[in-house]
Amino acid sequence: MTAKSDDDIPETSAEEGAVVPLAKSGRTGRRLRGAIAHKLGVSILSGEFAPGDVLSGEIAFAEALNVSRSAYREAVQVLTAKGLVEARPKTGTRVLPRDRWNLLDPDVLAWAFSGEPDQQLIRSLFELRLIIEPAAAGLAAAKRDRDELRQMKDALALMRRHSLATDLGRQADRLFHDTILRATRNDALVVLSASIGSAVSWTTQYKQRSRALPRDPIPEHVQVYDAIAAGDPDAANAAMRVLVELALEDTRWAMEG
């Protein structure tokens, strides 16, 4: 599991949409840059700034947020690296089209789920999971080692103990899925583990925001583990497909509630 960095810690406001004087918190350097990037990223992902919109100039933004112009510029560089904006001399900083956004970036996912994520994003994440995770489970069944089986089993034990309604349970859930991707021995899939793990974590948290899940999802995880432990790629693929499809049903149920 990946611990939160300083840049992951958002600056919040008592009044939604209010401008937060970030510098008053005493944050400097990396933490301040992360807080500014978070605020701007959430504004873009929530639709407050639409593709094609030009952000206010750095002087105006820096004064509104009570931060230095250099801190604001560094935050814009973070957004640029994630494909959200493009900064050009004279024309300013413009929000890029959605198809340029790196929606698999863990920070971008966090910004999306800080508010109310749109259904298109949620559907896209589950479609991605249905493409990647069943095949990954099949590969893991053929290639896993004892240490990876132990990590999956330990993660299942933590999920049972804490449930997916808790932070500890969701961290264990993420570890379970991360371990499966690592067990594929496929470098490209391993690179995706942070993105898939973030998608799993945020969608699991999202579908339990307002009410408890109507079912216990842990038995489906056990079936995936049992198939991987048995070294049965076909069974592991099928079990993971069922797990992700049921997770999508849970999410649809939460959105209707």
Provide a descriptive summary of the structure in words.
This protein has about 260 residues and is mostly helical. The protein folds into two domains: about 100 residues, Winged helix-like DNA-binding domain superfamily/Winged helix DNA-binding domain (Arc Repressor Mutant, subunit A, Orthogonal Bundle), CATH 1.10.10; about 140 residues, Four Helix Bundle (Hemerythrin (Met), subunit A). About 60% of the residues lie in helices and about 5% in strands. The protein contains eleven helices and two strands. The chain has a two-stranded antiparallel sheet. A hairpin with a 3-residue loop joins strand 1 and strand 2. Helix 5 packs across helix 7. The two termini are about 30 Å apart.
Provide key terms for this protein.
257 residues, mainly alpha, Four Helix Bundle (Hemerythrin (Met), subunit A), two-stranded antiparallel ribbon, 11 helices, disordered N terminus
Distance between the termini: 31 Å
Write down the secondary-structure element order.
HHHEEHHHHHHHH
Give, in spatial order, the strands making up the sheet with the most strands.
1-2
Mean pLDDT: 85
Oligomer: single chain
The biggest beta sheet reads: 2 strands, antiparallel
Residue windows where pLDDT falls under 50 for at least 5 positions: 1-20
How many structurally independent domains?
Answer: 2
CATH architecture of the largest domain: Up-down Bundle
Shape label: elongated
